[in-house]
Amino acid sequence: DSASSISISVTDARAALSSAIADARAIVDALAALHTATAEARISSLVGQNVQLAIGGTRISRLNIQAEARRALADINALVAASTRNGVNFIASDARPVEVQTTRFGGFITLAPQPLDSRGLGFGAPELSGRVSGFKAVTNTEIEQAERTLARARELASRRLQTLEGMEERLAFSSAAAQAVRTLDQGTRFTFFARGSATLTVAYSATM
């Protein structure tokens, strides 16, 4: 309803969605990298709490993975917070639905946010310092749980990215349809060729 949603134009909504999609792609990539590092740490028998492991040319340990993951999640939260455009945010957990007017006659569609911050992805809300301390990856049990959590978050983020892209396509279609209505409203000339007669031209104006 209007009390719990934000109303904006198609143009503003498309700009905000474009920004959200770019941020969502960066988040999916970050989660994929974290998931790969965590999986490597789990499957290698050499990796203990303080043992160094080379992944992609970088020496890491489980403690490093935990620290890097927490830092990455804090960066993801910062990216989500900065994704607000034209007063709306499509990827924050506390964002409100967006009501987009599609025609000047009162038509609208409602777009639901697709949360991609740590809370929305299942890692929990950050502390006041911004750190997401709920992510742990030191013991064998923790590393296995972390890998499962990252796999779910990666899959969820990918689905939500696809939803955002679908919303963008829907808005593009609505915008094109509205433009067609405006063209008719401004007056369009249709030419008819009557059989065996001269050309007949009719001016058409859509009025509501």
What is the element layout, followed by pairings?
Elements: E1 6-9, H1 10-43, E2 53-55, E3 58-60, H2 62-81, E4 98-101, E5 108-111, H3 140-185, E6 188-193, E7 199-204
Parallel strand pairs: 1-4
Antiparallel strand pairs: 2-3, 4-5, 6-7
Helix pairs in contact: 1-2, 1-3
Defining key terms:
208 residues, alpha+beta, 3-stranded mixed beta sheet, two-stranded antiparallel ribbon, elongated, disordered C terminus
Describe the structure.
This protein is of the alpha+beta class and 208 residues long. 48% of the residues lie in helices and 14% in strands. It is built from three helices and seven strands; from the N terminus they run E-H-E-E-H-E-E-H-E-E. The protein has helices at residues 10-43, 62-81, 140-185, and strands at residues 6-9, 53-55, 58-60, 98-101, 108-111, 188-193, 199-204. The strands form three sheets. The chain has a three-stranded mixed β-sheet with strand order 1-4-5. Strand 6 and strand 7 (199-204) form a beta hairpin. Helix 1 packs antiparallel against helix 2 and helix 1 packs antiparallel against helix 3 (140-185). The longest helix is centred in the C-terminal third of the chain and has 46 residues, at 140-185. 30% of the residues are buried. Residues 49-55 and 177-208 have low confidence and may be disordered.
